[in-house]
Design brief:
Length: about 350
C-alpha cells in the first residue's frame, strides 16, 4: 500500500478508536478495546508492520505519525481506565445522584444590635440627620472636660471609667475608653458650623460588674442638633417622632427632669408601656406603666461657650440612648449579655 493511503488509514483508525473508547464503560470492554486497537496484534500494530515495505521517506513520515497516534491512544486509554476506577469507588453508581436531597445551607443574618442600630439611624436620617462615627479610645478632654465635667467633679462618678495606661506631660491619666458617645458632640461642634443635625452610633465601655442589665461593652446612639432658634419644643417633637417610628404610632411619651452636666435643662424620656398598654404595670415596665428609653436636654450654654459658639445666637439639644436596651424592650430580651455571647440559638431568633 502506498504511504498516503496508510496515513489516511492510521488517522481513520485513531478517530474510530477514540469513539470506541468513549463507549467502553466497563473493565471488560476497555480490555477488549486495548487488545483490538493498541494490543500486540491490534489494528495499529498491523498498520505499522507495513512500514518496512515503504520508501525510506514514507517510512519516516508514517513512523512519526504512527508514534503520535500510539502515544495519544495509550494516554486516552489510561485516562479512561482511571475515570472508570473513580466511578467504581462510588459503588458503580454514576458519580452524580440527582435524586439526593441537597445539603442544608444555614443563612446568615445581621446581628440584632446591627439591626436595631440601622432602625434607629433610619428613623433619624428620615428627619434629616447625618450619621457620623468617632474614636472608641478617647481623651479625658472630650469625654469629660469639654462636656462640663471637670476633674474631681462628683459627676464623674456617673461613669465608671476604664483608663488607658498612659500619662500625659503633667503625669495625669488622660486617655480612656469612651464611657459614652457624648464626646462626639464636642468633636462635631469643634469641626463644623451650624446648622448641625448629627447622629452618632458607637461602642462605649465601662468598668462594670456585669449582670443582666449591665455590660462593660455596649452601644450608644448620640444625637446633636445646633442652630439658631432651637428650643425644647424641637427636642420633644423630634424624640416623640422617633418613639412613634420605633414603638408604634399610638405611643405616648413622658419627659421628666434629669441631670447630665452637658445639658441644661436635662431630661429623661419614657414611653408608655407597650406590653401592658393600659398603664396597669407589668414586668417590662416594672409595674410603673412607663419605660425610660433615653436621656436628653438642651446643650448647656457652658459647653457651647467652651467651643466658641455664642449661646445668645445658637442653641441646641442633645440626646443619648442605649440601642441594646431598646432592642431588649422591643423584642423582650431579658439579658444584655446575650448580645455579646455569640450564641447562635439567641442570634437566629432575630
Ligand atoms: N451620655 C449620657 C450617658 O451616657 C447619655 C446622655 C444624656 C446623652 C443626655 C445626651 C444627653 O446627649 O443630652 O449616660
Amino acid at each position: 500500500m502506498a504511504g498516503n493511503d496508510l496515513i489516511e488509514e492510521i488517522k481513520a483508525l485513531e478517530q474510530n478508536a477514540l469513539i470506541a473508547l468513549d463507549e467502553a464503560q466497563s473493565k471488560e470492554s476497555l480490555e477488549e478495546w486495548r487488545i483490538s486497537y493498541i494490543g500486540r496484534k491490534g489494528a495499529l500494530t498491523s498498520i505499522l508492520r507495513q512500514l518496512p515495505s515503504l520508501t525510506p521517506e514514507d517510512r519516516r513520515l508514517l513512523g512519526s505519525i504512527g508514534n503520535k497516534v500510539k502515544t495519544n491512544l495509550e494516554q486516552s486509554f489510561a485516562n479512561a481506565e482511571q475515570s472508570l476506577t473513580k466511578s467504581a469507588n462510588t459503588n458503580g453508581n454514576p458519580s452524580v445522584d440527582v435524586t439526593m436531597p441537597g445539603r442544608q445551607i444555614s443563612i446568615g443574618k445581621l446581628h440584632p444590635t446591627t439591626q436595631i442600630l440601622r432602625e434607629i439611624c433610619d428613623a433619624f436620617v428620615g428627619m434629616g440627620f447625618q450619621v457620623v462615627e468617632g474614636p472608641e479610645v478617647e481623651w479625658d478632654h472630650y469625654n469629660f472636660e469639654k462636656l462640663n465635667i471637670p476633674k474631681d467633679h462628683p459627676a464623674r462618678d456617673m461613669w465608671d471609667t476604664l483608663w488607658i495606661d498612659y500619662e500625659n506631660d503633667n503625669r495625669e491619666k488622660s486617655m480612656l475608653m469612651r464611657t459614652h458617645t457624648s464626646p462626639m458632640q464636642v468633636r462635631i461642634m469643634e469641626n463644623s458650623q451650624p446648622p448641625l443635625r448629627v447622629l452618632v452610633p458607637g461602642k462605649c465601655y465601662r468598668y462594670e460588674a456585669t449582670d443582666a442589665t449591665h455590660e462593660s461593652q455596649f452601644y450608644q446612639v448620640e444625637g446633636l442638633v445646633v442652630d439658631q432658634g432651637i428650643t425644647f419644643a424641637n427636642l420633644k417633637g423630634t424624640l416623640y417622632e422617633f418613639a412613634r417610628l420605633l414603638f408604634g404610632t399610638d405611643r405616648k411619651v413622658r419627659f421628666r427632669v434629669d441631670y447630665f452636666p452637658f445639658v441644661e435643662p436635662g431630661a429623661e424620656m419614657a414611653i408608655d408601656c407597650f406590653s401592658c398598654s393600659n398603664g396597669e404595670g407589668c414586668r417590662v415596665c416594672k409595674g410603673t406603666g412607663w419605660i425610660e428609653i433615653l436621656g436628653a436636654g438642651m446643650v448647656n450654654p457652658k459647653v457651647l461657650e467652651g467651643l466658641g459658639y455664642d449661646p445668645s445666637i445658637y442653641t441646641g439639644f442633645a440626646f443619648g440612648m442605649g440601642p441594646e436596651r431598646i432592642a431588649m424592650l422591643k423584642y423582650g430580651i431579658d439579658d444584655i449579655r446575650l448580645f455579646y455571647s455569640n450564641d447562635v440559638r439567641f442570634l437566629s431568633q432575630f
